[in-house]
């Protein structure tokens, strides 16, 4: 349909009416006031005595009252003139004026609507003139085309299969806007032109006619959202919803930057062939189009799309090539699960949170016969596999892998996710928007796909970013065998409803609440509100449920209105109201239908087995600080199963045996030194070897440093390169060995030694040629363990703090390195605690300095801070106690945590002790040293 002459006449009449009202308010009103009341300007300035006399005497003749009314009327007219000038200037400049507050606001709103309506008079005349000009040009062009087309029956003339009338061009397939843009002098043109929406217009059409490409429609939407509209015409807040009479801005572009991947046009998408003139936005027959891309989604929001994690999948439409150095888009787990880098990054973050919480609460053990405690329960294999895949993305980009605190600090800056990569189609990512999502999954692979989507969002649910609402029956179907109710109690972003009706009731109430918040804050949608007030916790919400006949309409309404309120719907089953996908057992889309089905044809979606999902949910749960087993593990004197201590070595009896490294007190000059505490680094007399060292070599050196007795080659390959084939693993091992020997021979000048000896089927580092800092530290700890008196133990432990120069093999994120890194950290901290326990009575200041040095090695250990606070209180330094607690709170805030109940209670108890009277904390008040 077209914008008819009747509509134009109505707009013209409305504009004339607004002009008449304006004429009366600006001209007629002051003339009437002047005729009735005279000039508001007095002939002379009255004296103060005259004013006082007039105000104090009785107003029998109502003269004072009439003067007051006259002054108020003239004041209102002046205010009317000022607001009208401001609104007209803002309208002509296409800028919104500041919204006034108080009783003046209704007057400003009235004037704004009058200005917009009065402008219809001029815009309608211009529209009629331009239409007449366009019709003349079209008539001339038709004549030219008719002259060029052969007559029926002549060579070159093609006839259609039917004899119906020829279809006339509509606004959708004509291109006058593009012709208008290229005319005139660019340097004197406004940066945009204003266009009035007619029936049948879409932003896709306007972009195609203006710039030659419909995919540039987000530029029009960004420029046009929330500009002042004529009276009775709603603002443009959704590219899918256009109303006749709306005004949009068409930015003038020199050379439009067409995206490499097409974005979905707003509904309705322009048809592939000529469309019927009667087909408009309300037509139900539409060409399927892909879901919105992030670029389109960003265009619909006043803020840019939130940044993704380091491991976020490539942008939608971006091909990936693993051989070209890019990270793979898909991660295959041994169980058969197929996940994306988005889920891998989210689970990797959960692993980091879990480790930091374990470090934070791990108790100190100062028993003389214990160097540590049994290791924490191992993390699930699926979570560790996802973590490793995420870490590999950094090595693929030649970037250093972040530490656990680095990952957590980066996550604190993240915002609510706007879209999700749910699979691949060829070499491209399949992306869906979360706001307004209306997607149904059916078939054998439906639950596995829904499980992958839900798990990824739950891993991102921290800090009110995501909320998942799922009925209890559907939750049990997606995550069988796990206590999903307990998981929901630990996860702040998971709501288990008793039924589907209860879930929809919850979302309906949430939608009403968000609507009220938007009205109060005068924001068009939730993304705009987040920008306006970042502290408002409006999370991205997703309903995951199986619809029934009684609640299908409600779910459809939630999906339809959810775009504005950042609410989406993932339906378990067929979903004719949105986009419906039928999935094979391997999560391949076998059939897709609905408004956005085209993107999913032959796509392969990510999917997760129930066992892998249970392991990942367990990790997400422990990331909140909750552990499935709260009872502390028993004290043990053994290290992790694959680490060796020097005390286990026998004295060498032959030349082929490995001599044990000497204790730290024995100084021996060796041609090379290996540093594994901190970054792995080889040193010679000429300095550190910083060039030529391969990554394979560093990993092998660190692993061999953990095994003084040596390792079998196959054992090292299975640990260091578990994903490699046996042949490629042997090649990697041999290459690393060759590289190490070559570098050491060049650095030391000694060409005959092997440096890495092969004896009895095992490879080991030659202790006679290479000094290793880890071995020195281990020998010192063993010496303290074997000490028979406190004096000998103090002498040995005094060197521990200096020998522990950093965490083991920093930068290596493999599980074997992380396990030994954590074990060594706890061992050192416990050893320092034992040292403090032995000396605090005779030298409390030195004991305090040792504890303060210990928190540099483990800055998140609450038990360590509590020991410092107790010792400071014993020394009478109550101000220092408060500063230590504040330091603990500051450190824990870096990992999104806060001091626990024990630390808060200790601070309260120590504050209550009056050391000024000579009192000291009792044993019950926490004095454990």
Automatic annotation (TrEMBL):
Transmembrane segments: 12-34, 64-93, 114-135
Keyword annotations of the record: Membrane, Transmembrane, Transmembrane helix
Domain LysM stretches: 193-250
UniProt-listed PROSITE patterns: LYSM
Region of interest (Disordered), ranges: 149-172, 228-329, 386-409
Pfam families, per database record: BTAD
Polar residues composition-biased segments: 156-172
InterPro entries the UniProt entry points to: AfsR-DnrI-RedD_regulator, BTAD, LysM, LysM_dom_sf, TPR-like_helical_dom_sf, WH-like_DNA-bd_sf
Keyword ATP-binding attributed: no
Biased composition (Pro residues): 262-271
Organism superkingdom: Bacteria
Keyword Transmembrane: yes
Compositional bias of kind Basic and acidic residues: 395-409
UniProt protein name: LysM peptidoglycan-binding domain-containing protein
């Amino acid at each position: 349909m077209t914008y008819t002459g009747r509509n134009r006449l109505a707009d013209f009449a409305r504009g004339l009416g607004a002009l008449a009202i304006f004429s009366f308010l600006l001209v007629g009103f002051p003339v009437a006031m002047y005729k009735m009341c005279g000039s508001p300007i007095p002939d002379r300035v009255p004296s103060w005595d005259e004013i006082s006399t007039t105000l104090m005497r009785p107003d029998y003749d109502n003269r004072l009252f009439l003067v007051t009314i006259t002054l108020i009327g003239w004041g209102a007219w002046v205010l009317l003139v000022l607001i009208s000038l401001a609104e007209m200037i803002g309208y002509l400049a296409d800028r919104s004026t500041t919204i006034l507050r108080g009783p003046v606001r209704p007057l400003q709103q009235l004037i704004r609507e009058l200005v917009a309506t009065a402008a219809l008079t001029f815009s309608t005349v211009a529209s009629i003139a331009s239409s007449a000009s366009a019709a003349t040009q079209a008539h001339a062009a038709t004549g030219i085309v008719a002259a060029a087309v052969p007559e029926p029956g002549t060579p070159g003339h093609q006839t259609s299969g039917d004899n119906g009338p020829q279809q006339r061009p509509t606004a959708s397939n004509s291109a006058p806007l593009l012709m208008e843009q290229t005319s005139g002098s660019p340097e004197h043109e406004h940066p945009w032109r204003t266009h009035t929406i007619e029936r049948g217009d879409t932003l896709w059409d306007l972009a195609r006619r203006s710039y030659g490409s419909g995919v540039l429609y987000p530029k029009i939407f960004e420029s046009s959202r929330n500009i002042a509209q004529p009276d009775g015409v709603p603002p443009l807040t959704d590219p899918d919803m256009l109303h006749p009479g709306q005004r949009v801005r068409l930015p003038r572009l020199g050379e439009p930057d067409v995206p490499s991947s097409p974005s979905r046009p707003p509904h309705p998408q322009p048809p592939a062939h000529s469309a019927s003139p009667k087909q408009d936005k309300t037509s139900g027959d539409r060409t399927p189009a892909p879901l919105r891309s992030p670029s389109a989604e960003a265009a619909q929001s006043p803020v840019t799309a939130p940044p993704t994690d380091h491991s976020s999948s490539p942008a939608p439409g971006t091909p990936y090539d693993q051989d070209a150095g890019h990270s793979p888009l898909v991660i295959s787990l041994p169980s058969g699960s197929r996940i994306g880098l988005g889920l891998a990054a989210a689970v990797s973050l959960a692993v980091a949170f879990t480790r930091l919480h374990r470090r934070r609460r791990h108790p100190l053990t100062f028993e003389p016969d214990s160097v540590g405690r049994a290791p924490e329960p191992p993390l699930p294999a699926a979570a560790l596999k996802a973590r490793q895949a995420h870490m590999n993305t950094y090595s693929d980009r030649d970037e250093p892998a972040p530490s656990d605190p680095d990952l957590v600090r980066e996550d604190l800056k993240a915002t609510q996710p706007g879209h999700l990569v749910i699979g691949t189609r060829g070499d491209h990512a399949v992306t869906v928007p979360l706001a307004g999502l209306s997607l149904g999954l059916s078939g054998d692979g439906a639950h596995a796909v829904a499980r992958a989507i839900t798990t990824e969002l739950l891993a991102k649910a921290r800090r009110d970013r995501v909320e998942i609402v799922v009925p209890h029956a559907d939750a049990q179907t997606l995550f069988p065998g796990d206590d999903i109710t307990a998981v929901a109690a630990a996860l702040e972003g998971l709501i288990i409803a008793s039924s589907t009706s209860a879930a929809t009731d919850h979302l309906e109430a949430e939608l009403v609440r968000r609507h009220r918040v938007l009205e109060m804050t005068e924001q068009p949608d939730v993304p705009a509100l987040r920008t306006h007030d970042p502290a408002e916790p409006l999370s991205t919400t997703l309903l995951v449920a199986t619809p029934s006949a009684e609640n299908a309409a409600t779910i459809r309404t939630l999906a339809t209105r959810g775009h504005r309120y950042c609410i989406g719907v993932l339906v378990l089953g067929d979903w004719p109201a949105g986009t419906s996908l039928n999935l094979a057992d391997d999560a391949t889309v076998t059939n897709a239908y609905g408004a956005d089905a085209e993107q999913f044809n032959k796509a392969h979606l990510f999917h997760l087995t129930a066992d892998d999902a249970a392991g990942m949910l367990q990790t997400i749960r422990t990331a909140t600080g909750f552990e499935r087993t709260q009872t502390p593990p028993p004290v043990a004197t053994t290290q992790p199963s694959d680490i060796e201590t020097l005390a286990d070595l026998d004295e060498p009896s032959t030349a082929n045996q490995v001599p044990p490294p000497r204790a730290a007190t024995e100084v021996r000059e060796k041609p090379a030194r290996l540093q594994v505490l901190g970054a792995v680094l080889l040193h010679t007399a000429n300095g550190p070897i910083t060039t030529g060292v391969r990554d394979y070599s560093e990993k092998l050196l660190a692993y061999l440093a953990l095994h003084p007795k040596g390792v079998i080659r196959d054992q090292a390959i299975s640990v260091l390169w578990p994903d490699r084939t046996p042949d490629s693993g042997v090649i990697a091992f041999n290459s690393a060995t060759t590289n190490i020997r070559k570098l050491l021979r060049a650095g030391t000048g000694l060409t005959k030694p092997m440096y890495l000896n092969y004896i009895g089927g095992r490879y080991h580092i030659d202790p006679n040629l290479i000094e290793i800092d880890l071995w020195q530290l281990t020998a010192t700890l063993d010496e303290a363990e074997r000490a028979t008196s406190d004096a000998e133990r103090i002498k040995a432990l005094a060197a521990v703090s200096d020998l522990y120069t950093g965490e083991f093999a920093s930068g290596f994120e493999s599980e074997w390195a992380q396990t030994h890194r954590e074990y060594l950290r706890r061992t050192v901290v416990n050893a320092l605690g034992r040292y403090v326990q032995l000396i605090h009575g005779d030298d409390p200041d030195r004991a305090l300095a040792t504890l303060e040095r210990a928190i540099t090695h483990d800055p998140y250990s609450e038990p360590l801070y509590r020991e410092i606070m107790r010792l400071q209180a014993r020394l009478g330094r109550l101000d220092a106690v408060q500063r230590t607690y504040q330091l603990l709170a500051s450190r824990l805030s870096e990992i999104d945590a806060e001091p626990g109940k024990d630390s808060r209670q200790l601070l309260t108890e120590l504050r209550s002790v009056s050391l000024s009277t000579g009192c000291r904390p009792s044993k019950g008040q926490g004095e454990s040293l």
